[in-house]
Specification:
Helices cover about 45% and strands about 15% of the residues. It is globular. The chain is α/β, with parallel strands linked by helices. The protein is built from 16 helices and 14 strands.
């Protein structure tokens, strides 16, 4: 099938590469000429495991190409995926200007029937607005479909190639059949395509992300209480998650959620509730808890070293909002590091993939180490903010030797606190006291 994907961010580039890998002819379109030039030269602007290999393999097979020419791409394609950004507006709502601009451009480029797919995360009712924009700008027949993505950064390629489910929101039998044909190769051992009306599909994405965000905030509230009463949050988590009704995902205590989806989608759902006279009190509380969690972690540092950190140097391991990505949008590191700097501290940071991205946020205000151990030299404490695999089993004797003080603040509960205390470390985590 001939497909165009408009937008080459995380969602668009992963979708384009994976759709091409299933034998489709895919044109990825972006108005950023520099990004398209990079992609044509085999340079992948984002880090995502397996993505570079997938892109290069499908370009070599002539199934995947990159272009700034939206008109030509639309003319050649039966299905047009809209995968542009929907950044958070000042009032918390999703900014849909890019989606609407693309919809108009698709309409003025149409030369036959098209299926226009909202792949971007958009509020309920967006498909209706996209439909109206297209109808005002073309006489050709078309259908607008909602096909929300459920990709986890760091595992996006595998999630797309082997999805838990594919949600298709469609009010047209013709469009539904075409979408089912696109996704049929991804489900050779079973059909997990869920077809529903467009508005329900739009809501499914927000409802899913908000639910996961609530679980994370719940785990952190329980962990904070565990510290107060002398319980161990990790033991509580194990005791909870063995209950099949609860499950074992997204209940780890830590620094809260970040990234491009959860914070934005939670706020957008709260805004949608306000617009429809429906207060989203649970989701609103989850958002507030998430904001507080980082500041509570900072309090652990200042309780140890004082509120004035002038003359202190801290090592930060991990800058990305999660492992296996270089994405720093809404990363806990931004809040924690800025607060440390504001209090007079120096920061020596290391991240396997996000150091270049971090320069956008911190410029030359911090030191970027070449490896994890270089970042420890002459520092007063180690602060773990992202749970990369290489941080899981470090050489603690070497850490102790390099630090001025054997102090570790573990924002991801990665380490065995009892063993570190036996080794002579001053260890602080979330949800337990050592």
């Amino acid at each position: 099938m001939n497909i165009c994907v408009i937008g080459t961010g995380y969602v668009g580039l992963v979708a384009g590469a994976c759709l091409a890998d299933m034998g489709n002819n895919v044109i990825c379109v972006d108005n950023n000429e520099a990004k398209i030039s990079q992609l044509k030269n085999g340079i992948i602007p984002i880090y995502e495991p397996s993505l570079e290999e997938l892109v290069k393999a499908n370009v070599l097979e002539n199934r995947l190409e990159f272009s700034t020419d939206l008109k030509s791409a639309v003319e050649k394609s039966l299905v047009c995926f809209i995968a542009v950004g929907t950044p958070q507006g000042e009032d918390g709502s999703a900014d849909l200007q890019y989606v609407f601009n693309v919809a108009k451009s698709i309409a003025t480029s149409m030369n036959d029937y098209k299926v226009i797919v909202d792949k971007s995360t958009v509020p309920v009712g967006t498909a209706e607005k996209v439909t109206e924009i297209i109808r005002q700008n073309t006489t050709y027949d078309f259908d607008v479909v909602s096909n929300p993505e459920f990709l986890k950064q760091g595992n996006a390629v595998d999630d797309f190639l082997s999805p838990d489910r594919v949600v298709i929101g469609s009010n047209s039998d013709k469009a539904t059949q075409i979408m089912q044909e696109i996704y049929a190769p991804f489900f050779r051992t079973g059909n997990r395509v869920i077809v529903m009306d467009v508005k329900s599909a739009e809501m499914t994405k927000y409802a899913s992300n908000a639910f996961l965000a609530v679980k994370i905030s719940y785990a952190n509230e329980i962990a904070n209480l565990c510290e107060k009463v002398g319980a161990n949050a990790e033991m509580v988590r194990v005791g909870m998650t063995t209950d099949s009704r609860i499950g074992n995902k997204f209940l780890f205590a830590g620094l809260g959620y970040g990234g491009s989806c959860f914070p934005k989608d939670v706020k957008a759902l709260i805004k949608t509730g306000l617009e429809n006279d429906c207060e989203m009190s649970i989701i609103k509380s989850a958002d507030e808890t998430n904001k507080k969690q980082r500041l509570l972690f900072l309090d652990k540092i200042t309780n140890k070293f004082g509120k004035n950190l002038t003359g202190k140097t801290f090592t930060v391991w991990g800058l990305a909002f999660k492992p296996k990505t270089n994405d720093m949008r809404e990363a806990p590191a931004i809040t924690i590091i800025n607060e440390l700097l504001n209090r007079g501290a120096k920061v020596q940071a290391y991240d396997p993939k996000a150091s270049e991205e971090a320069k956008f946020y911190f410029q030359n205000k911090i030191t970027y180490a070449k490896n994890s151990y270089e970042a420890l030299e002459n520092a007063d404490a180690l602060i773990l903010l992202t749970e990369w695999n290489e941080f899981r089993r470090p050489d603690f004797d070497k850490i102790k030797e390099l630090l001025n003080n054997p102090v570790i603040f573990d924002g991801r509960n990665q380490y065995n606190g009892s063993k570190l205390v036996e080794k002579g470390f001053d260890y602080t985590c979330i949800g337990a006291n050592y």
